[in-house]
Amino acid sequence: MLTMLRFLLVATLLAAVSIGSAAWAADTPQASARPNVLFLIADDLNNLLGCYGDPLAKTPNIDRLAARGTRFDRAYCAFPLCGPSRNSFLTGLYPNSTGIHTNGVVFRQTIPSQHSMPQAFRLSGYFAGRVGKLYHYNVPRSIGTNGHDDPGSWELELNPAGVDRLEEEPNIFTFTPGNFGGTLSWFASPRGDELHTDALNAEDAAWVLERCAKRKDRPFFLAVGFFRPHTPYVSPQAYFDKHPTSDMPVVQGVAEDRADIPPAGLASGKPEQDRMTDDQRRQARQAYSAAISFMDAQVGRVLDALDRLGLADNTIIVFTSDHGYHMGEHGLWQKMSLFEESSRVPLLIAAPGLGKRTVVSTPVSHVDVFPTLAELCVVKTPDNLPGQSLAPMLRDPATPGRGWALTQVTRGGRRARRAGVDQEPFFGYSLRTPRWRFTEWDEGREGRELYDHDADPKELKNLAEDPALATTVAELSTQLRDAVKTSLPPSGEIPPIRPATWAPDLTNP
Ligand SMILES: [Ca+2]
Ligand SMILES: [Ca+2]
Fold first, then answer.
1. Rounded distance between C-alpha atoms, residue 392 and residue 360, angstroms
2. pLDDT tens per residue, range 232-245
3. Within 10 Å of residue 312's Cβ, how many Cβ atoms?
4. Distance CA 18, CA 339 (A)
5. Please, which residues bridge with residue 333 across strands?
6. How far is the CA of 475 from the centre of ligand 1 (A)?
7. How many whole angstroms from 47 Cα to the centroid of ligand 1?
8. Contact 48, 54 (CB under 8 A)
9. Exposure string (b/e) for 369-389, b if CB count within 10 Å is 16 or more?
10. CA–CA separation, 148 vs 168, rounded Å?
11. Distances in Å between the alpha carbon of 279 and those of 1, 210, 248, 250?
12. Which residues of 40-55 are buried (b: 16+ CB within 10 A; e: fewer)?
């Protein structure tokens, strides 16, 4: 059944691609003049990178990419969880318009005829290929499979699996036996880079680029999704050695900080994380840092291949992560919070001829990536995209643009029941402006938070109930609710999962 569906989908898309290519050929001089796109994404990576000012990071390759282009200093995901975030930026729609607020589902179940970003590139005559994780994959279980992929987005999908997935799981330290992806877990592997999944991803990406280099008549959109630094933090021992535990910081003052945070703001915490010792906190930070450095080395291999093949002058390179990540701030680890560490993402765009070592500080969103690449590559987008093109900022980094970014998350419901709390599901929304982060839980019924980034970049002092700021709170509340309206489709209704649809779940091979 799945094979048949896939066949029909591919056949339909091939027909659509040939129509799209003909239309393109009729009104453009040369497809080869259009730039290629190399879209690089890490999983669960926050901004602990050298180019974002982290003094402990060892990320020379991502740093050299930042030096080639524009670094967005205030870039935010739409939802700090893999599946909702990835469905969002790959369609350019907010999660309230994709209808995807959980993992394990794909937008074809809610808005099946929407064109994804890679699909729009295909329909404009591009070759679109994927290596590794772009749509949601269960990590590590789906490594080596298509995960919860959208086959209509690509004409080539490569899913290598390395020793981290196939051999080393019995050696991984985990707080929850048998679970490696959803809990903190790590392992310093005695095996070399070349045997691990992300190095195989880089090798496969280089292989695809070699073939693209021979086809100058057809531009490419190549997406490479690295699995690290997602848990389990597995990387070769050499990367652990770069980050001695004695250098690893432990967040202090957590109990005082948490006193003014509404319960919903802290509900992403897990009991086993509250029981961690300082030694374990240092080890977790070491293993996360090692996984980042290992992933960085693989980014370097892909960039080297692009340069070696003479493709760099006509290729736009994007580097980002699906969402941010906590390393103990506010007592939180991992994702699913609306604080800065979990909502913020690295976003680097190196477009030939558009800026070097440039920094943009106005807030931008992941939903802006699709309109940006579409403008730069003259690709037609669906007409319902809410994002802005960032191309004006690549040309002039002082361009203010929309000036805010919206991030949302779910609370209550099934996830809360697992933690023993019986609560109807509700949303939290957070608005980031150049100065403020303002968050409302269930429209304020479950609490509000206001942080002044000019004075408090770590978001330690919740100012939402400060009478002196009542006007600011009221204005931000109006701005937030207006922003939420733009996240919904014109009907105002979140699209439901359609009956009799499913996402492929080709896990556990
Ligand atoms: Ca993720
Ligand atoms: Ca606080």
1. 11
2. 999 999 999 999 99
3. 17
4. 45
5. 327
6. 32
7. 14
8. yes
9. bbbbbbbbbebebbeebbbbb
10. 24
11. 51, 45, 10, 9
12. bbbbbbbbbbbbbeee
pLDDT tens readout for residues 271-315: 899 999 999 999 999 999 999 999 999 999 999 999 999 999 999
User: For residue 161, how many other CB atoms are within 10 A of its CB?
Assistant: 18
Quick: pLDDT tens for 4-61: 344 344 334 433 333 333 333 334 445 458 999 999 999 999 999 999 999 999 999 9
> Closest ligand to 460 CA?
2
Q: Determine the distance separating the centroid of ligand 1 and the alpha carbon of 353, expressed in angstroms.
A: 31
Q: Report every protein residue that has its C-beta within 5 angstroms of ion ligand 1.
A: 43-44, 82, 322
Q: Where are the alpha helices (DSSP H) in 135-182?
A: 163-166
- Strand-pairing partners, residue 224, are 40, 131
Nearest ligand to the C-alpha atom of residue 259: 2
Reported as half-sphere exposure (CB side, CA atoms, 13 A), residue 334 has a value of 22
- How many residues make up the chain in this entry? 509
CB crowding 194-216: b at 16 or more within 10 Å, else e: ebbbbbbbbbbbbebbeebbeee
Instruction: Tell me how far the alpha carbon of residue 405 lies from the centroid of ligand 1, in angstroms.
Output: 19
Q: Which residues surround ligand 2, an ion (CB under 5 A)?
A: 257, 260, 460
CA of 449 to the centre of ligand 2 (A): 9
Distance from residue 391's CA to the centre of ligand 1 (Å): 26
- CA 122/CA 129 separation, integer angstroms: 10
Q: What is the dihedral of CA 348, 354, 360, 364, to 10 degrees?
A: -60
How many CB atoms are located within 10 Å of the residue 219 CB?
23
Tokens 């060892």, residue?
58
SS3 sequence, 55-118?
Answer: CCCCCHHHHHHHHHCEEEEEEECCCCCHHHHHHHHHHCCCHHHHCCCCCCCCHHHCCCCCCCHH
Which tens digit of pLDDT belongs to each residue from 337-383? 999 999 999 999 999 999 899 999 999 999 999 999 999 999 999 99
